[in-house]
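Kindly go through one protein, given below as sequence and tokens. The question is how this chain folds according to its tokens.

***
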Amino acid sequence: MGPKAKKSGSKKKKITKAEQLKQLQEEEEKRLREAEEARLKFEKELERLEKQRIEKEKWQQLEKKDLERRPEELEELYSLEECFPEAEKLKQDSRSLSQQASTLADLDNGNMEKIIQDENVTLYVWANLKKNPRYKSVRFSNTKTGFEIPRILATSDIALRLLHTHYDHVTPLPSAPAQSPSPTPRPLSAGSQLCKGEAESTADADGPEDQADSKPRERGSVFIQEEERKVDEQGDPEVQMASVEKEAKAAEGDLEMKLLSEMVAAAQLDLIKNAPEKPEVSESKEVDLCQFTILGGVYHLDILELPPQCKPVKGWMMVEILKEGLQKFAYPPEITEDFETENAFPPVEVTLQIQEKVTFFEEPVVARWDAEGKYWRTDGISDVYYSSEDRLVSFKLETFGPVTLMQDTHINMPYQSWELRPLGMNKALLTVTTVFTEIQIQIKENLCVLASIKVKDKEHGSVLEGKWMAPVPFIIALKETGLNIFPTVYSHFYVAINNKVPLVEMKAYQQMALLSSAFAFGWSKWNTLCNSTNVVFKVRETLTEEHPIDIPNWALFMFSGDRAWRLKINEESESFSEALGEETEFHSTLYHMVKDAASKEAVEKVRSSSCQFVDSVCYMLLSTRVLSYS
């Protein structure tokens, strides 16, 4: 019998040593991988917790900081938000006054009138309680403000409300005029031109021989110094680095000043540029706000339906409260078929008392607001009467709504003459004389003040006298009172001017401002006869505020922006001539032109002038544009 066959599946396959090692290695790698993943997960969790902790601390710090400054911020916000309750208070006052009209009735005529006034708002309310057809004249006590109402209103349950806001919050803000980009390089500032001119004049002062001798010596000394510095720097790296940093800072400072000078010059040039196109007015009755200026604020005129009045009931005062509040009384009504006569709804005559701070040189233009078109218009207003002595204006109004008074923006342009005179160190007086008035503006350091105003050769009081302000708010304040001697970019469309090239005009103002501590400048009739590339004005040295006898006569100077010279003619000459004055020369700047005949004291004053003073004088000259608008 042969041997038994082996069973194939009875015994497991034997694992080799290599396979065992490989299996152990894989298990170890798996263990290490899991351990690494667990470590990374733990680190991420720690990182998340740390980030969360930092964010929480940061949040807590921000909350703490917010809580610390919260009272200050809320206080400031509350002060700004006071305008809302003030406006609502006026509305409630109108409503409550109308409802309590019967208890506030005047003993003489039986109707109610009330005036509520604060710094910027005045409210007038009149209630028609008696409905007496013969009582058609309404005048508020202690004022001349009032109405002349027709019979139909005198017999109706109405109340008249006049809310005078001393500012204009109705007119939309004007859009800035479009300006085409200029490819021409920007001019140097006045200071840069002055320094450049000083360097040129110093070089010219040296003789040719001196210059020739000095150049080799200068070149030799510079060469020796540079060689010595190079040897020192090569031996000391710290000195070399410090030198490089110093040069870099100097270059950065020079670049910054250059860019600042270009920016200032561009801004000054924009002040005297003229807009290329006149703004369009869509409607024939629309007021052109580039030609006219609102003065004295806005008068909101309303006719209201008289609400139910208070009634005494068993010791109580009962009043019906209407949910919709005060309702406007339609006058004239939309439907007039029931009325036979055509003139059943005549216009209402309104009399307004003009504010003391506002000056009208002519009869004001009365305009009403078109709520639909969003502009002021002059139709629907008739029989305008103006009394300058009583400061009253009356007119007839067909429909009620916001009304305002306007004056020609350019009523004081062109000027008849002007003068800029020193009053001492860093002080000057700018006088502008127009057809109606003479305005004197004192400039001191970086502030301006209205020194004097004359109307028809008589002193005229103003609320701005004695109030020092920075140039920009000062100009705004003068405009708001009607003393407007500041042209806009559109003014040349409305005024016949002696237009000058803007760059020439700007350079003249800059250099006149630089000299204004020691030299006076004035209007010349010959400025209108020279071409647009030149300006002519009077100049003389003035070191004291007084006018002593030994002050020299005015000299006539012509300036083209890059050349200045003294003219041979004077103001009394029979004809104009550009001929050069005797014993004088051409100069590149106005400063060097006046320096030829100036005293040492005058030159020292010019050099010691405050930069803020020079800038303020320049800004006022740029804003008045006396060389183009005289």
